[in-house]
Amino acid sequence: MYDYLIVGAGLYGSVFARQATNAGKRVLILEKRPHIAGNIYTEEIEDIQTHKYGAHIFHTNNKKVWEYITHFADFNNFINSPVANYHGNLFSLPFNMYTFNKMWGGDNTSRGYGYN
Prior knowledge:
This protein has 116 residues and is an alpha+beta fold. The chain folds into 2 domains: 4-69, no CATH class; 81-116, no CATH class. The protein is 23% helix and 21% strand. The protein has helices at 11-22, 63-69, 97-104, and strands spanning 4-7, 27-30, 42-45, 48-51, 83-86, 89-92. The strands form 3 sheets. The chain has a two-stranded parallel ribbon with strand order 1-2. The longest helix is centred in the first third of the chain and has 12 residues, at 11-22. The protein is elongated, with a radius of gyration of 21 Å. The termini are far apart.
């Protein structure tokens, strides 16, 4: 007999199962794919970890979450900072007030945006 039936071994299902098991509960996980990790699954192809279902980036500023997740996997130090090159000028994406200010100039505080 199980305390929990979890459908899907993606990020949430896997973490819940681990936490429940650590708390002494019996857990049964049903997963239709031949692997765990759901859409964040990676597979090794020619010695390269490849994102099977599309790119995924894990980021947190919560030390407790970071220590928990790095217990199970190694992470590189990738920082997502996309930019657009428009006529030789670089603009951060997604667009923000800094980008608009850089494109059209001016002081946002005088326009009532409330940004300093």
